[in-house]
Design a protein that fits this description.
Keywords: Sigma factor, Transcription, Transcription regulation
Strand content: under 5%
Family: Belongs to the sigma-70 factor family. ECF subfamily.
Shape: globular
InterPro entries: RNA_pol_sigma-70-like, RNA_pol_sigma-70_dom, RNA_pol_sigma70_r2, RNA_pol_sigma70_r4_t2, RNA_pol_sigma_r2, RNA_pol_sigma_r3/r4-like, WH-like_DNA-bd_sf
Number of strands: 0
Protein name: Sigma-70 family RNA polymerase sigma factor
Number of helices: 9
GO biological process, one term: DNA-templated transcription initiation
CATH architecture of the largest domain: Orthogonal Bundle
Length: about 180
């Protein structure tokens, strides 16, 4: 069993992984894979899917460790967020495959630009990115999962392991903060 690792030690390992240090990557895996698997299993409720999500998350960490910076939260939070998103992506992918072909209208897609797309484009991608980075981690996760992944408040509550009312508050307060930021 891995000894509890400090955020400073995780940061040092992550920086070494960014330099493609395989030993640091192995140590990082040993330190957090158990916790990461627990999160993925809690979300997916399927061992094989959780294992795949952990593997995919570590591949992403290997390739994107150089993109980590302190503004994105603590190293452990950043890596667990990658695992959470990967788990949710795999769950959706499997759900979509299970229902493919059930009916001709099940997978009709509207490729037209929606109001959110127009709004985001007009606000300016750089301004929006800067404003999103100013949000707290939970607000940012809630909004991104809701608007970009199409999750309902109930799905967000499960994914973020928080009560529905709390999730709704995060989304509402995050959107208000984004609006204020973009109006500046």
């Amino acid at each position: 069993m891995a000894i509890e690792t400090s955020q400073d030690e995780l940061l040092a390992l992550l920086l070494a992984v960014a330099r493609k240090d395989r030993q640091a990557f192995q140590r990082l895996y040993e330190q957090i894979s158990g916790r990461m698997f627990g999160l993925c299993l809690k979300l997916a409720k399927q061992q094989d899917l959780a294992e795949e999500a952990v593997q995919d998350a570590f591949v992403q960490i290997w390739h994107h460790a150089s993109e980590y910076h302190n503004d994105r939260g603590a190293p452990l939070s950043w890596m667990m967020t990658i695992a959470r998103y990967r788990t949710l992506d795999l769950m959706r992918s499997r759900k979509a495959r299970a229902t493919d072909g059930d009916g001709p209208l099940d997978r009709v897609e509207d490729h037209r630009e929606g109001p959110l797309d127009r709004s985001l484009r007009s606000a300016g991608e750089q301004a929006l990115t800067g404003c999103i980075e100013e949000l707290s981690d939970v607000q940012r996760d809630s909004i991104l999962l809701s608007y970009y992944r199409g999750m309902t408040h109930d799905e967000l509550a499960v994914a973020l392991s928080s009560p529905v009312g709390t999730v709704k508050s995060w989304v509402r307060r995050g959107l208000m903060a984004l609006k204020r930021c973009l109006e500046r």
